[in-house]
Each structure stands twice: as C-alpha cells, then as structure tokens.
Amino acid sequence: MPLNKNPDDLDSKRLEQELTLYKRMVNASHDSITLIDRNYIYQVANNAYIDARKMKGEEILHHSVAAVWGNEVFNELIKEKLNECFKGKIVSHESAYEFNKGELNYIETRYYPCFNSEGDTVYAVIVSHNITELKQSQEKIKHLAYYDSLTNLPSRLLFMDRLHHAIEITKRDKKSMALFFLDLDEFKKINDTFGHNAGDELLVGVAKRLQKSLRDIDTIGRPGEIISILYPLASKHFSRIGGDEFTLIIPNLSDKKFSTTVAERVISLFKDPFQVAGREMFISTSIGVALYPDNGKDVETLLKNADTAMYNAKGQGKNTFQYYSSSMNVQALERINLENKLRYAIKNEEFLLYYQPQYDINTRQLVGVEALIRWKNLEMGLVPPGDFIPLAEETGMIIPIGEWVMRSACRQGKIWHDRGFGNLHICVNFSMRQFFDINIVDKIKSVIETTQCDPNRLELEITESAMMHDTDRAIHILNELKEMGIKISLDDFGTGYSSLTYLKKFPIDTLKIDQSFVRNADLKGYDGAIISAITAMCNQLRIKVVAEGVETEESLNFLKKRYCHVAQGFFFSRPLPVEEFEKLL
Fold first, then answer.
1. For the purposes of burial, counting CB atoms within 10 Å of the CB of 30, is it exposed (0-12), middle (13-18) or buried (19 or more)?
2. Is 1 contained in some domain?
3. Sign of CA dihedral 215, 211, 323, 265
4. Which residue from 65, 105, 171, 369 has the highest number of Cβ atoms inside 10 Å of its Cβ?
5. pTM value surpassing 0.85
C-alpha cells in the first residue's frame, strides 16, 4: 500500500521547485535583476547583474547598495528612486555607466514595488536593460538628420535650429548677429564638365578648408565676440544647407567691422587651388551678409535677406561679399521676373539673330558674319545679350539658347549658300558651359546634318578662358570639330590668360583681338604695341587675325599696316537684322 504523504511536505517541495524555476528564469535573463529590501540591502542579484558589476555574488548579496555603488552614487542617484518605489510607485530613469575603462554603457532602469499581503511595499524589484546599441542607433539616425553625409558639416535642419537659438540669445542679450550665406561661383560648370564625383570631391575640400579656418576666425575678434549658443554644439560652425550653399553664424557681434573682416578672410580661403581628381581646380565664392536685428528679426527673414545679398554679390562680379539692403529685394524680384520671362522665351523661341559683317582689311570685301543673339520681348522690347546672357549662363538656360543660335545660324548660312554666297563664313559664339556639354560634338553634327550647312564655312568662337578651364578636354573637343571641317576662333584674346603656349597646343584657325584694345585705342601707346605683337605672332603661326571694335579709318589703317586680316566694327556696320544684312549681300 502507498504511504500517505504529509501535505506540508508536498507544499514545501512544490515551493522549492517553483523557487528553483524562478531563480533559473531570473538568471537566464540578459537584463540585470535585483531585489532590495527597505533597508537598502540586496536580497537577490541575478548573474547578469553580477557580471555587469564585475564582482562576485557574495560581494553583493546581503550587502547594502551604498557598499556596492559607493555612498556618492547611492545618495545622488539611487536612494531617491528606491524611496519613491517604496511608496508604491513604478520609477524609471536612464543613465550612463563606465563599467570598463573607456567602455560607456547606457542603462534603462525600472523600479517595481513588491507588496506583502497587507499591501505594504517590502521590496523593490529593479530591472536594468542595456540600451547602448539602441542609443548608438539613435545617435546615428540623429547624425544623419543633423549632419550632411558628404561633408559631415551641420545640415540645414541643424543650422535652422542653431539660427533660431542664436536669434533668441542675441535678442535676450540685446546684441547684434551676422548671418553669412555662401554660394560657390560657377560650381555647376564643374559638375557638368568633370562629373558629379569631382563636384562632390570639391565640396568635401571646401568644407575641410572652411572648418579649418574657424580657428583663424576665433582670433580675429576680441574675446567673447564668438560664443557657443547650443551645448554641446557651438554656433561657430559652417553648415552645408544644400548643393554648394554654406552658412556661418556670427553671434554676439559688437562691431560690424568684425563681420567684414570675417567675410574677407573667408573669401581669401579660395585663392589657392583645390586638388580634385588629380588636378588643380580653382573656384571662388560669393557671400551675402544679413545682420540681426537690422535685416530681420526671425529665421525666415534673416535667411532670405542673406540669400538675396549673396545673389547681389554674384551680380557684382562674384568672388566678393555684400551686406543686405532693402533695395536688393527689388533687384531680386526683377531677377526672378526676368528668369521666368527667359524660360518662356526659350519655350516660344522669342529670339532672333543679328549679323555683324566682317570685312577683308585689304580688299574691303565682305567675307563673313558673326551671329549675335537678341531677345524680342513683348513687354521689354529688344533685349541686348548683356542683359540676359549672364543669367542664362548662371541658370543653365544658355544650353538650349546656344543650340537655338547654332541651328538658326546654320539654317541661314545654308540659305545664303544656295543663293550664291557660299564663301561667306558664319561665326557662332560658344559659352564655356555649352562648349563643355558632354554631348556637344554630337549636337553640332546633328545641327549640320539637319540644316545641310557646309561645315567648312562654319566658325565656332570660343573664349580663351573657356579653353583654359580644362585644356585636355578642350583640345580633344576641338580636334573632333576640326575633323568635321569646322573652323575654330579664339575670342576675346588679350583679356584672359593669353598664354602663348596654348596658342601652339590648340588647333586654332582664327584669333580675335578684343575690342578693348582696338576701340578708341592709343595706337602709339600700349594698345598699339599689344596689337602689333599679336598680329606679328599670329602671322608667324599662320593664324588668321580678326580685329573687333574697329570704328575709325585710323584704326583700320593701323591694323592694315600690321597685317591684320579681317575687321569688324561700327566703321563698317553695326549688327544688322537678317533683312538689312541681305541688302549688303
């Protein structure tokens, strides 16, 4: 017969089994779990907690929290949380601990009250979860949001936050503040010419140079003129807010002259070339400066006005800085209106060509024409190229405009050829952006095929500064054009690099002496000497010389004696619309 077992023995055994199971469960947890009584004594500590503390179990169990953590940590961090828990509240907090030297861990700790049958809190169950990986992931996400992934500079989001705080602090302290808005000059041409990888490499180089300059900027002003406005982030940082646009906040400004000195220092950073894709590359910057509170009292207004001042700096010739003034808003609005009208003009082909005759100096026979674009707008009338070509260059609209000029000039050349004027050369100007278009050769071939223009009567005029931008690629493009039978003219010679070495390297047929040396020139002085040198050199190199800006008989005779070949200018004729030019034919 089975023996009767004592129920108390069964309950005791069941309780022992359950305690063993609970102990295994607690020790299996990766979270640190402890049980602390109201006297702040450890009653339970699982393996994860013991391992994290780098201690032995007997050094923790039945010891006080103060003994394990030290009185300072216990009194300042733990005791208050335990007392709240013993009042029956669930308490949580985050903290960072350096368990191993140099190894920082972020811990999320929760305190749970443990009640007896009467409802009194007798223990606090403390569960600590290591959230270091979560924190690191959050920091990475935060860094991606607040810092530019290419340059590692603060991004637009962080910049806007800093600017807001800078305004608040400046307002509170009744001080002034300067906002710098930087935009790289002709950056799009570098992207179009060398590719976006080269553009990105240049942006990284610019960012490094700007960051390095902050130590120099610190030494410009008196102590306290540059301060930190956000901990742990200082305001004296450049930010990249998009594309090739950078910003700098100068808070606590006591003298406008200081911001002028900073602007001059920043511009000087660009005087040395950048190393990009194994070559030296020069670039400059235009800076707009807006002051708080004079030019705006909120983030949006201050940023908009600094941007407006930057565009005004570009209009002043670039590589300079401008302070904002209220009159700039009118100019900015006019620029936007002009840009919109120009886009509409491209869509509706509101352009027409004028032709300036070119004459053989010796025979005074008409030998060629230079095609010059004009814009006929219903509101503005006939718009000269100087009023819209710079805008077209800056916005990239020069590409479709240039294609229209090429196509129209070639089509007109074909008409004149069919009418018996086949010896007439058609000269077409090319901008640097258009010349370095990746598909430029194919586009020219397409135009010649569709218009049936004789390539041997087509002459492309390219400025020497455009050719010097990337000499190796320029030579490659020019050789392809030469193989098609197209003539190459070097325009505005004498105003740029004027390197004699490049005259030898480039496959040039014609060199055009810039009108600044010919028009109203002192023929017995420096201008005359330069013209004489250019013509003598070109005759030795068997390069045809064309003089622009010929306005007097005296200038024409001077050029004739120097063996200049072709002349154009008001002495012969102004640029003419096609109907009037055909009367000359």
1. exposed
2. no
3. positive
4. 369
5. no
Compute how many other C-beta atoms are within 10 angstroms of the C-beta atom of residue 123: 19
167 lies in the same domain as 119: no
Whether residues 60 and 193 fall in one domain: no
Q: State the Cα–Cα distance between residues 146 and 509, nearest whole angstrom.
A: 54
Please tell me what DSSP assigns to residue 82: H
Q: How many distinct structural domains can be found in the chain?
A: 3
Residue type at 92 in one-letter notation? S
165 phi, psi to nearest 5 deg = -65, -40
Whether residues 205 and 311 share a domain: the answer is yes
Q: Are residues 299 and 355 in the same domain?
A: no
CATH number (domain holding residue 29): 3.30.450.20
Q: Please list the residues that pair with 491 across neighbouring strands.
A: 463
Domain extent at residue 214:
149-325
Closest CA to 244 of 281, 207, 194, 277: 207
The string of pLDDT tens digits covering residues 36-89 is: 999 999 999 999 889 888 889 899 999 999 999 888 888 888 899 999 999 999
Whole-number Å distance between alpha carbons of 420 and 150: 59
- Coil, helix or strand at residue 239: strand
Please write down the HEC assignment for all residues of 108-152: EEEEEEEECCCCCEEEEEEEEEECHHHHHHHHHHHHHHHECCCCC
Q: Which of 452, 458, 558 is nearest to 510 (CA)?
A: 458
Report how far apart the first and last C-alpha atoms of the chain are (Å, whole number). Answer: 137
Around 556, how many Cα atoms within 13 Å sit in the side-chain half-sphere?
18
Rg (CA), the chain: 39
Same domain, yes or no, for 529 and 439? yes
Residue-wise pLDDT for 321-370, tens only, equals 999 987 776 777 777 888 899 999 999 999 999 999 999 999 999 999 99
Pairing verdict, β 176-184 and 121-130: unpaired
Any domain includes 8? no
